[in-house]
Amino acid sequence: MSENNGMKKIKNLKVNTLTKSEIEEIVTNDVYKKEICGDKVGRVRYRVNTIGKINRNGRSYCDNGISAGVTYWHTHTYNNPFWPSLEDIKRCSNYKTIEMIFSSMGIWKIKFDSSKLRSSIPVQTKDIDDCWKIFHNKLDKMFCGGTFEPQELFNVIYDFKKQIRKMGYRLTFEPFGNLKEFKTSFNKLWK
Ligand SMILES: [Zn+2]
């Protein structure tokens, strides 16, 4: 990886687009605490739309667009949950967007394709809510507890992926190569 290109660009605010590896540098760097969001342009460029807006509760947030078919991306900062929020998932079904989330652990990609559903019965909102809650609680417990094996993490992700697939969601997780290194540093930082 090039030496801190992503961080350099963000710090100087000379930002128009970033590459995947530049965003990886940013999200795996614990000094960078602002959420960044944008949309994907072409195959390899990630356009930056907003950087680090803070809401009334002091939480970092993004206000990405909602045009159907567009791939939007945003970051989850180092000291926040690295998995998709329920809102992140529902954006795909509500607006037919493709969502990419760059987190300290890896990259999530979610899309919704109801055409491949076997049943014509619409998916109940409650189903995805319940499913996500279980997924969230498992990961939250795992990371707050301070014990974490990569395999354990992958099992939880796989279960969730399988469950929501039945509802039309396609989820992928591309872990960063140094996932194991996070075992120690992440535990220290988590809550
Ligand atoms: Zn998110």
Q: Which helices and strands occur, and which strands form pairs?
A:
Elements: H1 5-11, E1 17-18, H2 20-27, E2 36-41, E3 45-51, E4 53-54, E5 60-61, E6 71-75, H3 86-95, E7 98-102, E8 106-112, H4 125-144, H5 150-165, E9 169-175, H6 182-189
Parallel strand pairs: 6-7
Antiparallel strand pairs: 1-3, 2-3, 2-6, 4-5, 7-8, 8-9
The protein binds zinc ion.
Explain this structure to me?
The chain starts with a helix and ends with a helix. It contains six helices and nine strands; from the N terminus they run αβαβββββαββααβα. It has one domain. Strands 1-3-2-6-7-8-9 form a seven-stranded mixed β-sheet. A two-stranded antiparallel ribbon has the order 4-5. The protein is an alpha+beta fold and 191 residues long. The C terminus is likely disordered. Helix 1 crosses helix 2 and helix 4 packs antiparallel against helix 5. Helices cover 36% and strands 23% of the residues. The protein binds zinc ion. The site of zinc ion (ZN) has 6 residues, from loops.
For the largest beta-sheet, the strand count, sense and barrel status come to:
7 strands, mixed
Ligand names: zinc ion
- The share of residues in helices is 25-40%
Q: Kindly report the average pLDDT value.
A: 83
Unreliable spans are: 183-191
Count of beta strands: 9
Written as H for each helix and E for each strand, in order along the chain, the element string is HEHEEEEEHEEHHEH
CA gyration radius, whole angstroms: 17 Å
End-to-end Cα distance = 29 Å
| Overall geometry | globular
Number of domains: 1
Sheet-strand content, in percent, reads: 15-25%
- Biggest sheet, spatial arrangement of strands: 1-3-2-6-7-8-9
Count of helical segments? 6
Report the structural category: alpha+beta
